[in-house]
Design goal:
Elements lengths: L3 H7 L2 E2 L4 H7 L10 H7 L1 H14 L3 E3 L13 H17 L4 E6 L2 H5 L13 H16 L5 E7 L2 H11 L6 E6 L10 H10 L4 E7 L3 H9 L6 E4 L5 E3 L4 E3 L5 H10 L2 E4 L7 H11 L1
Parallel strand pairs: 1-10, 2-3, 3-4, 4-5, 5-6, 6-7, 7-10
Antiparallel strand pairs: 8-9
């Protein structure tokens, strides 16, 4: 297994792709509000197998199935804690790679599309409280790094940064670059600087966005290793729970992301092991 902090300084690191996408392609039902967390609970072997497909495709880092799993929701809290730990152990069993424990936004727990707006009606303290217990469980789970991802607003980034400061665990922080929660006044760049100011944050960047958004977002980013793992170009319709539009080959763009400072590249929603294999070939 690579040392992520060292590797990020030396060469491009390849992230995995869309876990929910692959689970669905493997025949699993991910249409409920629990998304991949339902498979994690009911068929953990499928989660392990999906991680292993991304490892075989060339991923250096696999991101756990904990994105849409949190306390105070449909699943009882005692079961949530066990499932968070299971998500890490399954990723660990998939291969000799870095295990990144996914920490999604509050909106992901609501499954109402607010993960793309940040419009929760919550204060900074509310957001800190909403994330705290999950962060602590995942920090103690044996993961190599916390993958704080798809964060849709400066306020939620600030809340997470404050919580991460109290944890002696490395993390990377990625914002949802197309989110309407970022105004056109530089707030996205400010959010990335806020995340980068936390001593344990190894990298910052963007994910779950259109490929065309990546380079403009990276141009705003602070001078630490950067991340880029967008969707394949399709757009999620939260009302119909379907993807709209056509896909773009991520590997064609990946070298430009690396040239712009990205040291960890991969795919998010709709990206497959074939996409990750192509990205690995393009950047190594």
């Amino acid at each position: 297994m690579i040392d992520l902090a060292t590797a990020l300084r030396r060469r491009p690191v390849v992230l995995d792709g869309g876990l929910g996408t692959l689970l669905e392609a493997r025949g699993n039902d991910v249409t409920s509000a629990l998304w991949s967390a339902r498979v994690l609970r009911d068929d953990p072997g499928e989660v392990r197998a999906a991680h292993a497909e991304f490892v075989a495709a060339g991923a250096d880092v696999v991101i756990t199935a904990s994105y849409q799993l949190g306390f105070g929701g449909v699943i009882p809290d005692a079961e949530v804690e066990a499932l968070l730990r299971r998500s890490v152990s399954l990723a660990r069993e998939a291969g000799d790679v870095v295990v990144a424990a996914s920490v999604g936004p509050v909106g992901a727990l609501r499954a109402d599309g607010s993960e793309y707006t940040g419009a929760y009606g919550l204060t900074l303290d509310d957001l800190r409280s909403a994330h705290r217990r999950r962060l602590h469980v995942l920090a103690e789970s044996g993961a190599d790094v916390l993958a704080v991802e798809t964060i849709p607003s400066p306020l939620e980034v600030e809340a997470l940064a404050l919580e991460l400061e109290g944890l002696a665990v490395p993390a990377f922080v990625s914002v949802s670059a197309d989110s309407t929660g970022f105004a056109r006044d530089g707030s996205r760049a400010e959010a990335l600087r806020t995340a980068a100011s936390v001593p344990t944050v190894l990298a910052v960047g963007v994910n779950c966005c259109a490929p065309a958004t990546v380079l403009p977002a990276l141009a705003e980013a602070p001078g630490i290793p950067l991340l880029a793992y967008p969707n394949t170009g399709e757009r999620w319709d939260a009302a119909t729970r379907t993807w709209q539009g056509g896909a773009a080959p991520l590997a064609d763009e990946a070298p430009a992301w690396v040239a712009a400072g990205a040291r960890a590249v991969g795919g998010c929603c709709r990206s497959t092991p074939a996409d990750i294999a192509a990205i690995a070939a393009a950047v190594r």
